[in-house]
Design goal:
Layout: E1 21-28, E2 34-41, H1 46-83, H2 88-108, H3 114-120, H4 123-145
Helix pairs in contact: 1-2, 2-4
């Protein structure tokens, strides 16, 4: 039996668990390509992992393209605003609203990088993504409406 020091790390909780067993899933890499990957997961967390992975397979590429599109749109609109000499108020409104859109995307698609998952498991980054998404929405609204 594995000791706590060399027990596998449960990918869902990010903690060592002697009951964690390897599971191979078709998932997405950081660029949205389908890959087969093995994870160690405790039996009590396997259903959650599979449900999260199914959501990732359905919405992962959409999340990636949404964030990239919003970022590109922000750059294009700021450059257009500078070239067309828009007022600072209009530029702040556009940047703030697009920042809020980014926050909504991060909240709605709480996916994390492989490094973050290795660091604290899957459950922690989901919460962290949702919190940072809400903070980003609020900061975007502050920029858009108050500054």
């Amino acid at each position: 039996m594995a000791t706590p020091d060399n027990a596998p790390i449960d990918v869902w909780s990010g903690k060592r668990d002697p009951s964690a067993r390897p599971v191979t899933l078709k998932t997405l890499d950081r660029f949205g390509f389908r890959v087969k990957k093995s994870f160690h997961v405790a039996p009590q967390n396997e259903e959650r992992l599979r449900a999260f992975n199914d959501r990732l397979l359905r919405r992962g590429r959409t999340a990636l393209w949404t964030v990239l599109a919003i970022s590109a749109l922000m750059v294009i609109l700021v450059l257009a605003a500078l070239l067309l000499s828009w007022s600072a108020d209009i530029i702040l409104l556009v940047v703030g609203l697009l920042t809020s859109c980014t926050g909504i995307a991060v909240y709605y698609f709480p996916f994390a990088t492989p490094e973050t998952i290795r660091w604290i498991g899957l459950r922690g980054p989901i919460r962290l993504s949702r919190i940072s998404g809400l903070v980003t929405v609020l900061l975007g609204l502050v920029v858009a409406l108050i500054l």
